Amino acid sequence: MATNKRLATAHRMETELQKLQESHRLRAQQIKALEDEQRSIIVAARVRKSADAQDNIERTAGEIAKLRTEDTFDCVAITEVSANLEAERAALRREQWHERCAAVRQLIEPRAAGDLEQKVLNLALDLKRTLEQMAASDGEIVAALQSIHPSLLTCADRVGRMRTRTPEIISANLAPTLENPFSKVYLDNLGSDPQAPAVQSFKAALQALDNLAEMEPAAESA
Predict the structure, then answer these.
(1) Mean pLDDT in residue range 136-141
(2) In the prediction, which pLDDT does 115 show?
(3) What are the respective helix, strand and coil percentages of the chain, to the nearest 5?
(4) Non-local CB neighbours of 141 within 8 Å, separated by 6+ positions
(5) Which of 14, 93, 145, 169 can bridge 152 by disulfide, Cβ–Cβ 3.0-4.6 Å?
(6) In 10 A of CB 201, how many CB atoms?
(7) Long-range contacts made by residues 73-81, C-beta under 8 angstroms, separation at least 24?
């Protein structure tokens, strides 16, 4: 990645800058030591005219001049490397920022078409149609049970209650994504599976109907 290359370049330049700064620090110490040496022999060289002291003055002066020249070059190099390093860091920050934005964009782009929303809507509409079909079927069964014999009114009432309870159980199962204030009540009282009570209700109705079918001819012939 380009960012990794820039990061490696920045690290290299930081190392170079640290070396230059350390060299500048050590050279300053050397210059100070030579200047201290000069001060200790300057009287002997200038007042007492000591040849050895004069030689040492000239030697230290030459060394100081050389060190200061090298230090001047190092200072120029430090300024240049510092500027380049700051530019590299700025470029690195921009690239890292662009990469972060690109990562977020990858999360958003697949959602821009609204496909998931459309899928959820289609599922909701399918669910609505299925619930309507169930309610219509329950209604027909209730009416049939009520009309055939009074002994089946209890079964009709039980099936009739399913017309409201099944949507309630389905709704409760969608919590907390689609929350409603009665979700916990429904789940606690009715359970989370709408199939079980439906099977029980319809099997009970079938059993009662079968029993009635066996009894009714005898009642009619009497």
Answers:
(1) 95
(2) 92
(3) 90, 0, 10
(4) 156, 159, 202, 205
(5) 145
(6) 20
(7) 74/20, 74/23, 74/24, 74/27, 75/24, 77/20, 78/17, 78/20, 78/21, 78/24, 81/13, 81/16, 81/17, 81/20
pLDDT tens for 15-28 read: 998 999 999 999 89
Is the distance from CB of 211 to CB of 152 less than 8 angstroms?
Answer: no
Residue 86 has pLDDT above 70, yes or no: yes
Residue in this structure with the two tokens 């040849």, named with its chain if needed: 51
Residues counted in the chain: 222
Q: Name the band, by pLDDT with cuts 50, 70 and 90, for residue 132.
A: very high
DSSP states of 37-92: HHHHHHHHHHTS--HHHHHHHHHHHHHHHHHHHHHHHHHHHHHHHHHHHHHHHHHH
